[in-house]
Amino acid sequence: MGLVIDGEPATALAGDTLLTAVLTNGRQLRVSEFGDGARAGFCLMGACQDCWVYTEDGDRLRACSTPVAEGMRIVTKGATWPRLG
Amino acid sequence: MAAPRVVIVGAGPAGVRAAERLVAAGLRPTVVDEGMRAGGQIYRQQPPGFTRRPEELYGTEAGRAVAVHGAFAALAGRIDYLPETLAWNIEPGLLHVARDGVARKLPYDAVILATGATDRLLPVPGWTRAGVYSLGGSQVSLKAQACAIGARVAFLGTGPLLYLVASQYLKAGVEVAAVLDTSPASARFKALPLMASRPGLLVKGAALMWKLRGVPILRGVTPLAIDGDDSGVTGIRVKDAGGREHRFAADAVAMGWHLRPETQLADLAGVPFEHDALSGLWMAQVQADGRTAVKGVYLAGDGARILGADGAEIAGTLAATSVLADHGIQVPVAEVVELIGRRAVMDRFRRGLLRAFPWPGHLAAAVPDDTLLCRCEAITAGELRRSASDLGAPEVNRAKALTRVGMGRCQGRYCGPAGQEILAAARGVALPEVGRLRGQAPVKPLSIATVVPLGVEDA
């Protein structure tokens, strides 16, 4: 499957979570909003919320429980302002 | 009497067995599952298209996993199954759920909360680095994604899961750098009388240790730090029982100290809590048959008491029999007596495990001031201590208001147990005196747009 991570084309396997897709393309998933560095998820079961990434449109996704889909466009560095509506 | 409307939250072993028992009595329960497919975390199913056999996925528990999945599949058409649905609040007679950004309310006469558990964590300097995962999460990664968290993994914590996951990684071809257990070796022998209640499990434990031969195993360790650089983990340092420092190179660390029950919904439903001195955890008050002090609210599985997957199956069936009996539907007395007897054996073993692998509250209390306690908002242990020393916070909810520890997006799941120890030690009081973080709705983050729109459809 093809997706775009931070503007760069990447590939993933059907059945991958978004977290797996990002981490098979690099060592980190996102950057802590509180200035303490790189994160790569933690609980992997939807409880810690330490794997949030955003779509280019600003929708928030919990990477550990979101299946990757063809053509996804993901932002992991410096979140887009969240879409509120 | 009209058939009671029963909602079950959770589709792990407890939820599945509860649904099965209710269907057997002619009811049509609704099952709310945050997962995509039934099984819960322990019997998590791999995505469609993955072809590993149950024996590869679940090891010695393959038979049980297949049985639970089969039991759930057999309920198709006789239950209302709501996958990928979060139960995020509860009020008398109404469960609030959300799926795909759409909220709705499910009316119930009885609700069985089979919400499971998550890993209990202890902050260690460096535990927020990329490449550090919870033990349970490390297992989920193998089971559900066929991925290891690293190529050379160190395991830190205590409890049977520590050794189990390490052996599963070894079997998957991953290099296990070390198994670092905070429990002293001597604790295991003291716990033998209680653990003898399930000799089969002791044999499985011995087999597990045989699989791990050749792997460095240290007991009675004090974690010092998880080292790393900008891109992730490079190693882990501990002090052994004799005070000698050891460093193990690793590119990932899995850590966990048993499990903690997911009790937020029980809390919001008004179920009273009690402090369990053996585990150091606050638990919802629940009878062996799943009944609580709140009419219509029942608890089952690890969300009630950490009895393990097979104990959860028993507790699920038991809670269902209680629901039936409370609605005038006959349940054979012998069935309940037998289930309660089997549950008691599980509970005895649970107490043995907690003695063999004790929660190291003293290590939590001694976490260095500059260590991040709150992963969500990067708040240090020292800041929590100062809320006690400088600001006089008498208990954890006040400390949360002052420091935001427990207010972040995990809502205290990962900082809560250690935070209690830190605050109690800083105040010089016994652990129960600093209380517990109260559950708040939504129990997991929701988009504001899910909750706010007017005219939310009632089910």
From TrEMBL, chain B:
Ranges of residues in domain FAD/NAD(P)-binding: 5-304
Pfam families from the UniProt entry: Fer2_BFD, Pyr_redox_2
Highest taxon listed in the record's lineage: Bacteria
Gene3D superfamilies: BFD-like [2Fe-2S]-binding domain, FAD/NAD(P)-binding domain
UniProt keyword terms in alphabetical order: Oxidoreductase
Protein name, as recorded: FAD/NAD(P)-binding oxidoreductase
Domain BFD-like [2Fe-2S]-binding: 373-424
Record-linked InterPro entries: BFD-like_2Fe2S-bd_dom (IPR007419), BFD-like_2Fe2S-bd_dom_sf (IPR041854), FAD/NAD-bd_sf (IPR036188), FAD/NAD-binding_dom (IPR023753), Metab_Enz_Cyan_OpOx_G3PDH (IPR051691), Opine_Oxase_asu/HCN_bsu (IPR017224)
Taxonomic path: Bacteria, Pseudomonadati, Pseudomonadota, Alphaproteobacteria, Acetobacterales
Species: Rhodovarius crocodyli
Keyword Manganese included in the entry's annotation: no
CDD domains xrefs: GlpA-like_Fer2_BFD-like (cd19946)
A GO molecular function held by the record: oxidoreductase activity
